[in-house]
Amino acid sequence: MTSGPVQVTGRVLSLKRAGAYHHLTLVAEGVAERTHPGQFVALAVGDRNSPMLLRRAFSIYRARPSGAYGGSVEVVFAVHGAGTAWLSQLRQHDEVDVVGPLGHPFALPKQPVSCVLVGGGYGSAPLFGLADRLKERGCAVHMVLGAATGDRLFGALEAKRSARSVTVTTDDGSVGIEGLVTDPLPDLLGRTGSEVIYACGPMAMLRAVSAVSAEYGVWSQCAVEESMACGIGVCMTCVLPVVGDDGILRLTRSCVEGPVFGGDRVLWDAVGTVPEGTWGAPAGAGH
Q: Quick one: 132 and 189 in the same domain?
């Protein structure tokens, strides 16, 4: 597979609603064939005269190297500000400048194992391409999807086609089990003998999933949802406190070294701070 990101002019193939979210498909030649599950694209927003200079980063939901109109990538997003509002108004054939795929993807097991994939809200989007790759390797895939309310779930029906078992939770109990995605995890891990947890969603959810993983001795990989202003490691706005393979704590760029990290490597309680002992930090940092 060809590697490395490219910058291309993408064209809107479709834009449709998916519950509380928007599902955007872009024809973007050269991006799809380079994509691995867990990577993302950075999209330019606004026209040439727009004051919105920074790109918006989105996890790749699906990447299709070929199709009637060429290779395409799909992203799912919610409207949170001017940039995503602009994207939500796009029409078929509109042009969007695309850079991708970016970031490090999920690591796949070398041997067939049972895996649990946990998604929160539209954070579940990149897990479906991952499920396909895991099944190709003979892995048993189990999915847990959660959201605050039923309309904020994403992919619950698709999950039934992608996974051996599907568990759905909502905070208000409107769909599935009332509670958090972590509530059914201990029982699911016990029943399936799963050895790996993959997770993508809000930071609070990833922190909780990592805690369950550590408690039950299961390896976890988390795709973080940090704001990424540039997507290429220049602006340093998406740093997280992460312990490296060498045991050294650093402020690590989510867009370049991530967005996928081992759940046990991130200091979740210290996100947004400079913890004491961070490599290169000024004396007294963390106090």
A: yes
